[in-house]
């Protein structure tokens, strides 16, 4: 019994001594360094036989002063969505690449670094990360010519998409490319005219700038969809395949937390605010009734989801798509 006790105590003593020695000589492990990078900004879904890739261009903060409504109501709506800064709200920019099997169509192009600061202009790197190259794009469709939608088509005076035709509603092209209208525009709005004109120039020179007037399908399964008010020619695009549909709606709404529950709240970016509000109200009724999937440039990335009538009040809920692997 005594031998057993001595042996046990000896083993314990040796073990403690060894542990103490190991602790003394073991190097201290530093924490892994922070990476400060997100994953590549692309997300895919299928609409029938068509592959749609959402491409993140970036994001930032928008001053809430540009919203037209009761400041107290706006502040409460933002707080309800945990946007606790009453003076600014987070916003994103994205575009959508549609592979029909025979055509590669890019709808909107982000800011291209020409507007919005360094937090925008990431679409090209995300397009490449998604497995595509700019020279593969056959057609660029623009919902309108604001800088965060059209700025990505040019760089250093050259075409970013060398093999693509660029199309948009003729009314928008005529407005933003007009030198007379540009001359009369407020100074803080002139950047939008400058970007639009610089974007158009290399494509016009190459015969690749093709404004349209009608509303017929542009390629099989992709047709313009009239959405008036935001700009003179603001137009969405309905993508249809195998009985499924997706509306790329451009700038129907900018601030999810505010304009979904209260569609009557406008924003400075709308050239015809009253018409934009009326259009948004009517469109939300239809999209909610039809259960149509939406691709929205300024909803939280990837901007894919549906709207449904809210249980109370005048507004709607934005229901984002669930992250799923493409099948």
Give a verbal description of the structure:
The chain is an alpha+beta fold and 327 residues long. Helix content is 29%, strand content 25%. It has helices spanning 2-25, 71-80, 123-129, 147-150, 170-176, 179-184, 190-205, 256-259, 273-290, and strands at residues 42-47, 50-63, 67-68, 88-99, 104-107, 139-141, 154-155, 158-159, 165-167, 222-226, 235-241, 244-248, 266-267, 293-295, 304-309, 316-320. It has a 6-stranded mixed beta sheet, with helices on one face. The chain has a 6-stranded mixed beta sheet with strand order 10-11-12-14-15-16. It has a two-stranded antiparallel sheet with strand order 3-13. Strand 1 and strand 2 form a beta hairpin. The longest helix has 24 residues, at 2-25. The radius of gyration is 26 Å and the shape is globular. The protein starts with a helix and ends in a 7-residue tail after the last strand. Mean pLDDT is 91; it is low at 1-8 and 10-23.
Short summary:
The chain is of the alpha+beta class and 327 residues long. It contains nine helices and 16 strands.
User: Would you report the number of β strands?
Assistant: 16
Rg over CA atoms, rounded to whole Å, is 26 Å
Instruction: List the strand order in the largest sheet.
Output: 1-2-4-5-6-9
Approximately what portion of the residues adopt beta-strand conformation? Answer: 15-25%
Number of helices: 9
Query: What is the H-and-E element order?
Result: HEEEHEEHEHEEEHHHEEEHEHEEE
What's the pLDDT, averaged over the residues?
91
Query: What low-confidence regions span 5 or more consecutive residues with pLDDT below 50?
Result: 1-8, 10-23
> Globular, elongated, flat, extended or rod-shaped: what is the shape?
globular
Helical coverage, percent range: 25-40%
Largest sheet data: 6 strands, mixed
Distance N to C terminus: 70 Å
Structural class: alpha+beta
């Amino acid at each position: 019994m005594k031998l057993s006790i001595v042996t046990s105590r000896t083993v314990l003593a040796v073990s403690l001594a060894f542990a103490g020695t190991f602790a003394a000589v073991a190097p201290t492990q530093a924490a892994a360094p922070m990476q400060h990078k997100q994953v590549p900004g692309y997300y895919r879904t299928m609409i029938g036989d068509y592959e749609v890739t959402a491409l993140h261009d970036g994001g930032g903060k928008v001053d809430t002063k540009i919203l037209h409504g009761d400041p107290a109501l706006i502040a409460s709506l933002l707080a309800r969505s945990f946007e606790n800064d009453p003076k600014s709200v987070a916003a994103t920019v994205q575009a959508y690449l549609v592979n029909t099997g025979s055509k590669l169509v890019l709808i909107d192009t982000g800011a291209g670094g020409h507007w919005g600061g360094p937090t925008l202009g990431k679409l090209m790197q995300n397009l490449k990360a998604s497995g595509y190259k700019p020279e593969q794009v056959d057609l660029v469709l623009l919902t309108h010519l604001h800088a965060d939608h059209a700025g990505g088509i040019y760089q250093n005076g050259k075409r970013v998409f060398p093999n693509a035709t660029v199309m948009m509603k003729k009314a928008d092209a005529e407005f933003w490319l007009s030198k007379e209208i540009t001359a009369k525009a407020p100074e803080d709005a002139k950047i939008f005219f400058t970007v639009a004109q610089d974007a158009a120039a290399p494509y016009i020179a190459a015969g690749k700038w093709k404004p349209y007037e009608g509303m017929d399908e542009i390629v099989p399964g992709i047709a313009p969809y009239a959405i008036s008010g935001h700009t003179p020619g603001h137009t969405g695009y309905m993508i249809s395949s195998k009985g499924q549909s997706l509306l790329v709606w451009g700038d129907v709404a900018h601030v999810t937390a505010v304009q979904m529950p209260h569609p009557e709240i406008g924003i400075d970016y709308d050239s015809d605010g009253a018409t934009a509000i009326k259009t948004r109200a009517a469109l939300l009724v239809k999209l909610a009734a039809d259960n149509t999937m939406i691709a929205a440039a300024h909803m939280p990335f990837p901007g894919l989801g549906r709207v449904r009538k809210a249980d109370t009040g005048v507004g709607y809920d934005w229901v984002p798509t669930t992250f799923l692997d493409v099948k």
